[in-house]
């Protein structure tokens, strides 16, 4: 059985006094008195004596329960490691295979001399990694995302683990290609590395951020557009100038930009506008 | 024991006195439950869980200063728990307040508990208060439902006195506008 509660703040004179305390004009106080008086219409359930006794009994039980032993930092680390270890399995298999195929194509083109090395490493290789990152996280690419988000595990940890796994794989492939081409053509390994390492970091960060905001398909499309524009203009004087622009090569500035964009992406991950728009979650005022 | 102040009871409860704890629960459980019920959007199970957590957290504090007023402190803990809850459970929670209240107003088919508890006017007020920002909602609830003074609200919400006044002023004005809007929506439907 549920009783009813009526607010104890009812008499008109008390309401008037309370409103005057707010330094409101007299006419406004007069207008607000009926509003405050009407608040009593919103009643709430009041616990019965039995419910109060049950509440007290539960409270005493919880107070008497022995405190959970403190969790050691090793246990925390082990848990984080286990979570991180399982994330690569949740990345779609086509991303692993697609990257391998695309990188093999890039290697073949460079090896056979069908495409210039600056094009392969400056444009082709970063875009392959970028495309993978675009499909890393989101309801479109991870049907089990709702379950993952329903767990008390940080979404930043989930995304970070996946990003680390995929980028490690991509970079390993890219390093292998770079080493192969460097050996084949006797080019400087570091010079080839400088062509793609910075752009890969920057474009991957942009890709993660854009995929959170716009979705994977739009992100991948945008990245392809960037690639395509540069590819078209590369045959022209302006395009060549752009590619050889030292700001687009690996540089501390590029890594700093990548780090900032990556941090922005990670900051956005928990709120994840596209997902929250589909599933209303918390009142705006609490966010 | 009934004559003792809240602060005295709290000190004794912290020393393990069950009668003092029972007295505090008797005094404040209904009030805290009502506050949380209104603050979280008429979700009674959630309000009950948070009430339990509020009392638990209250008693697990090892640094209670008896010079500190008990009641604002209790409401401060309750308010912070609500904030934490909505932040932590963001992905699992449906939006409270509006859905229950306006939804009930719109389809005319509130749940059995709401049927028993809320009159149509009460539902409109719940909907209007649900649309206020949390900072205004908490201040209004504490002032006009629980009778806390402005200095007590300042303690409970950990904000300056002037801010309490401005939140109450703005909150009541907005509430008035919202109540008119909600009434119009109800009339159109």
Outline the structure in words.
The complex is a heterodimer of chains A (287) and B (189). With 287 residues, chain A is an all-alpha fold. Chain A is 71% helix and 2% strand. A two-stranded antiparallel ribbon of chain A has the order 1-2. Residues 1-9 and 275-287 of chain A have low confidence and may be disordered. Chain B is 76% helix and 0% strand. Chain B has ten helices and no strands. The longest helix of chain B has 28 residues, at 161-188. Chain B is elongated and about 60 Å long. The chains are: A mainly alpha (287), B mainly alpha (189). Chains A and B meet through helix 1, helix 2, strand 2 and helix 3 of A and helix 2, helix 3, helix 4, helix 6 and helix 7 of B.
User: Which value, in Å, is the CA radius of gyration of chain B?
Assistant: 18 Å
Shape of chain B: elongated
Helix content of chain A: over 70%
- How many beta-strand elements of chain B? 0
Helix percent of chain B reads: over 70%
Task: Tell me the Rg of chain A in angstroms.
Answer: 30 Å
Provide the spatial order of strands within the biggest beta sheet of chain A: 1-2
Oligomer: heterodimer
- How many strands of chain A? 2
Number of helices of chain A: 13
Helix segment tally of chain B: 10
Contiguous low-pLDDT stretches of chain A (5 residues minimum) are 1-9, 275-287
Instruction: Assign the structural class of chain B, choosing from mainly alpha, mainly beta, alpha/beta, alpha+beta, or little secondary structure.
Output: mainly alpha
Helix/strand class of chain A: mainly alpha
Pattern of helices and strands of chain B = HHHHHHHHHH
Q: DSSP strand (E) fraction of chain B?
A: under 5%
Largest sheet of chain A: 2 strands, antiparallel
